[in-house]
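We modelled the chain as a single entity of 282 amino acids. Its sequence is:
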Amino acid sequence: MMKAHPTARSFLAATRSMLEEREAENNLILGLATTLAGDRTYYGEAPPLLVSVHAGEACIGAALRTPPRNIILYARPGAATTFVRQLCTYLVAEGIRIPGVIGPKETVARFSEAWARQAGAQPIVEVREMVYRLDTVTAVPVAPGRFRRAEDSDRELLREWMLQFHAEAVEPISAVEAAQLTDRKLLEGALYVWEREAPVSLAGWVRPTRNGITIGPVYTPEAHRGKGYATSCVARLSDLLLEEYSFCSLFTDLSNPVSNSIYQKIGFRPINPVLQTRFEYR
């Protein structure tokens, strides 16, 4: 049985127990839902898509989308076939066209195959990622400089870095969107920098869940790369966050061996491969 939820609170009531069985793995869908439960317009005015699939009393899968972004999926191990079938049927019946999908590798692959048949869409894998989890920070060499929370005086620089980070690591956003995102994260106290005479690297946190929190964005301008600034900044931020949370998580692009190596040196361990796939419609 599939349920469409009118609010993030209703969605979490139905899915939280299942999602928290693998809380770090599900940091994206759990974190988004938790944020939406506190502010339904945090990710935009358009109502989110919030659905769960159940077998009897047990929740076996969940999907969340904040338009116009990709749909995010999770299916309980062994339940992906049933979950995908019911979700695809619902999306087609509701006339919902999605630009892409992100989630655990096997579930996304199965969903993409089914969606291609039912919606006439060609799936194209855009990014192969890995979810990492950190419980204890491993000591690493400390780069010259100091760690501090970002301040209002950093605003213009961080707006530009946010624009560049999204262009390189996520998806391009406008200068206006980068400014709005930076301003919001500064207000939340969620951005930190590694500083020499001036900031040389950025790290922040997003999407807290019940026991964990996600690291991001992480960005170092090209002129300052290869000097250990990002490693030091992320390690120090992780230490700070682990004073309050049981674990930190993050996503990496598997095509970037440098970032994957950096995070593993700090103590992050890979826990689940993720696919991000877009759809081209005929």
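As a brief sanity check on the tokenised model: The chain has a mean pLDDT of 96. The helical segments are 8-19, 27-38, 80-93, 105-119, 155-169, 175-188, 229-241, 257-266.
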